[in-house]
C-alpha cells in the first residue's frame, strides 16, 4: 500500500470536495454507510453517474466498498473523515463577491 504525505491527503480530499455530487455523497456517508442505489436517489443522479463518482472517491482513498452478499455497501474509509467533513461547516468565510463572480474563468474557488 502506498504511503501518502499530508499534502497528498489534502489534495485528494480537496479534489473530492470540488464536485457537488461527490460532496453530497461524502456527507451522506458521514451519517451512515449506504448502497449505490440509495445514494443515487438521495443525491439526485443516475446510477451510472454515481458509479463514476464512487470510483473517484475510492481512488482518492476516501470511501471503501464492503461486499454484503450480492450487494455492495459504501462507507467512509476512516472514521476521522466524518470530523473532516463536519468541522469546516462551522467556518465563516470572508468571501470577496467580486472575485467569485470571475472564479469560473479564473479557475479559482
From TrEMBL:
Record has Transmembrane helix as a keyword: no
Listed GO MF terms: DNA binding
Entries under PROSITE patterns matching the protein: HTH_ARSR_2 (PS50987)
Xref: SMART domains: HTH_ARSR
UniProt domain HTH arsR-type: residue ranges: 2-96
Entry-linked PANTHER family: HTH-TYPE TRANSCRIPTIONAL REGULATOR CMTR, TRANSCRIPTIONAL REGULATOR-RELATED
Protein's UniProt name: DNA-binding transcriptional ArsR family regulator
Gene source species: Paeniglutamicibacter kerguelensis
Amino acid at each position: 500500500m502506498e504511503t501518502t504525505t499530508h499534502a497528498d491527503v489534502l489534495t485528494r480530499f480537496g479534489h473530492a470536495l470540488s464536485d457537488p455530487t461527490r460532496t453530497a455523497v461524502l456527507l451522506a456517508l458521514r451519517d451512515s454507510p449506504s448502497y449505490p442505489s440509495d445514494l443515487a436517489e438521495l443525491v439526485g443522479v443516475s446510477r451510472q453517474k454515481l458509479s463514476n463518482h464512487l470510483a473517484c472517491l475510492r481512488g482518492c482513498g476516501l470511501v471503501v466498498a464492503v461486499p454484503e452478499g450480492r450487494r455492495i455497501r459504501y462507507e467512509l474509509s476512516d472514521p476521522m473523515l466524518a470530523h473532516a467533513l463536519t468541522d469546516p461547516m462551522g467556518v465563516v468565510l470572508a468571501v470577496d463577491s467580486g472575485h467569485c463572480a470571475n472564479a469560473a474563468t479564473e479557475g479559482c474557488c
